[in-house]
Amino acid sequence: MMLRYALQTVRHRKAGFLGAFVALLCATALITACGTLLETGLRGTIRTERYAAAPVLVSADRMVRETTVKEKKGGTKTKHKAKPVAERAWLPAATADTVRAVPGVERVVPELTFQAVPLAAEDSGARRPSYGHAWSSAPLTPFTIADGQPPRNADEIVVDRALAARAELRPGSELTVQSTGEPRTYRVSGIAHTPRGDLTHQSALFFSDDEARRLSARGGQVSAIGVLPTPGIGATELAARVERALAGTTAQVATGDDRGPAEFPDAAGARTKLVSMGGAMGGTSLLVAILVVTGTFALSVQQRHRELALLRAIAATPAQLRRMIGREALLVGLAAGTAGALTGLPLAAWLHGRFVAGGVVPGALERTTGVLPMCAAVAAGLLGSWAAARITGRRIARIRPAEALSEAAVERRRTGRLRAVAGTLLLAAGAMLVVVLGSLRTEPASTPVTFLAVVVLAGAVSLLGPLLVRAATALLAGPLRLAGPGGHLATANLRGNATRMASAVTPLALLIGMTCTVLFVTPTLGNAARTQARDGIRADWVLSAQGPGVTREAAERVRRTPGVAAATETVHTSVRVGLAKYAAQGVTPAGLTRTWDPRVTGGTLAGFGEGTAAVSELAAARLGLAPGSTLTLTLGVGTPVTLTVAAVYARGLGFGDLTLPHDLVAAHMDNPLASGVLVAAEPGSGVGREQLAAAVRDVPGAVVLSAAQADAARAERQDAGAEINLLAMGLVLAFTAVSVVNTLAMSTAERFREFAMLRLAGAERRQVLRMLRTEALAVLLIGTVLGSGIALAVLTAFSVGMTGVAAPAVLPVGYATVVGLAGLLALAATALPGRVALRVAPVEVATAKG
């Protein structure tokens, strides 16, 4: 009986359920998209390109492993954990001899992979990475000569067909290549191609074997070993034999798609980042969806208060009403969830494409499209809609018929005790999260708490909304009366319909609070880091490069320039201390204090050099270090090293947590070139840009920047990071914006009867519209104050935790834009349905509804 009535209700009240359908559709689409990204991080395929013709691949283990043993009552519990290093790991070249002796191996092909960037102007638009190899490893793809001949001398090179087409190269052309050392010009001896098609995610340059060994700068090491089996031996069987032969070493054996992570280590590392981003976005999306969908269903049930009251009056039992409301919600949830799950797939594809274009996720990590995120989204939509409808319809189903009819005519003035208690508890939880956020010192720990705090505080606003609206109305009553009759009507509506107005305030507060947090959280951290870097760099000039980096020879030329007091080369990487990841930089020790001041608070930089390290106060506190302590860490390629802490410094945001000797770090990086060289001039020497530029005039891509220009370049990189964060949370913000329009439109569209009664009482059409505009402005003002308060509290706590200072970076133009766009949404979502409602003659509405 109730199922049939639920079907009839949904069929005949399509407009009433449209708002709930839209909210659920957006929610499930968002959950599907985030779930797809999460699944891609967990199960995304990294297909091999370079090693496609090698069924078995041997590579070095890139994981730092840690084993912990805990004593328990029933015995001991052993845990094994592993984290990847930042750079490409290398194998001893002698490993090839061990593999060659394995039965079933027909051929062993050692591989060298190293940075080799073509400096051809025509190829500057190609964003794909470019790697150099020895020509003897060409069979791993396989590459064969399509035009010309293999490289025979140290000054010859072979390029792949796609690169040759982009850079307009042919045999005999000259090509300048920037590798791990000084740039060198080579003659193109041949163009190579592969029967499998051009490489998609990289460019390949082949050198003579001796030249490749020189450029790789890895004497006695190889990056991988391709193994070709004898006829009749399967890859799986051969891989098992090779594993047994290499047992006890750091070598790993892979077949099939497992070869991809060895070829694209950055793609393998991006999996963790994508899991983190997908989980954070999905979790935030789910919380926002719960908040928005519950509010939408609350408004939907409130609009049907009169109908439900009549059902109670004609003897419908509370259980029957609850079942009917729940089944209506399931019907809407199933339709919206299915449509949303299908919509979420192209949304996930678009988002993944944007991440790839922005460099957050390498293109080699292929997007995985499975049914699990879709099923999870539909299930979440069904459960969310059913729970929201049952919760919001709980009271109308329980009260007596006479009370139900009276509340259908006039909104209940008192806020329910349970709602007030729940809202207070949620407010307390949000305050606790803000306090916790103020104590968090690392970005990975603080980021999820930041957005969780915003959603929890917005949830408190949702539950306490009627009380907040009534309090705000009391404050705004005077100014609203100045708007004339429309202002009086708006004040009366705000007072008499606080619950309905609160349902509009909540998404506005959430939109403004979430958007301001997303927009200003990165500048808050970035500005503090820039300030520390600006205050800590004593150099007058910075030598930078438009290519992969500044070479050692270019730095030496600057160092030898008359009037230069010191030139500090800097490289950046990340290292592991235990399993914890820390940002690290390598700096040349000579003249360091002339160019660099990290504000040392313990120890001294006077003895900084080989075998020593300097650490930030944060890292020192987390690791229990002090000057003279021993620090054991794992470098980027997986090499462990033990150093002595020489100094502790305060400016960790600007210079990273760990500072190490330049030569130590550069020798364990894929790209050992300096990201910049800090140049300090002797006082009164008069050395300037012209002299420094003349010293590096023939160095491709070398640029001399002033301190101000270097700071501006850091600001540009910061803005790029902010764009990625905004993109990551953009879907959540878009969903919240849709919910604002949806809720306000629903709230206005259901007031046909009210508008008709006002018209019949003598109010003019423009007066009713003025009343609507005044109400919308009042709702916008309340939502702006609440949302801004939430964002300010959260950003201040984030700033205190991450920078030690309560100084959130709130950009006035950005803030005004957010409030302005929210205002446009609010006014449009109120005015358009209001005009539609006022087109109907008042007598027709009164007759139809009466």
Task: Explain this structure.
With 850 residues, this protein is an alpha+beta fold. The chain has 29 helices and 26 strands. The strands form five sheets. Strands 17, 18, 19, 20, 21, 22, 23, 24, 25 and 26 form a ten-stranded mixed β-sheet that branches.
Radius of gyration: 33 Å
* Strand content bin: 15-25%
Helix percent band:
55-70%
Output mean pLDDT.
84
Q: Largest beta sheet, briefly?
A: 10 strands, mixed
Give the SSE map.
Layout: H1 2-12, H2 14-43, E1 56-60, E2 63-72, E3 75-84, E4 91-92, H3 95-100, E5 105-111, E6 114-115, E7 117-118, E8 130-134, E9 144-148, E10 156-160, H4 161-167, E11 174-178, E12 184-193, E13 203-207, H5 209-216, E14 221-222, E15 224-229, H6 235-245, E16 251-255, H7 260-263, H8 265-303, H9 305-313, H10 318-357, H11 371-392, H12 394-398, H13 401-409, H14 417-437, H15 443-463, H16 465-481, H17 485-496, H18 498-536, E17 541-545, H19 552-559, E18 564-577, E19 580-587, H20 592-595, E20 600-603, E21 612-616, H21 617-623, E22 630-634, E23 640-649, H22 652-655, E24 658-661, H23 662-666, E25 676-681, H24 689-695, E26 702-706, H25 707-749, H26 752-760, H27 765-803, H28 812-838, H29 842-849
Parallel strand pairs: 8-13, 10-12, 19-24, 21-23
Antiparallel strand pairs: 1-15, 1-16, 2-3, 4-14, 5-15, 6-8, 7-11, 9-12, 10-13, 11-12, 17-25, 17-26, 18-19, 18-25, 20-23, 21-24, 22-23
Helix pairs in contact: 1-10, 2-8, 2-10, 2-11, 2-25, 8-11, 8-15, 8-18, 8-25, 9-13, 10-11, 14-15, 14-27, 15-18, 15-27, 16-17, 16-18, 16-27, 17-27, 18-25, 18-27, 18-28, 25-28, 26-29, 27-28
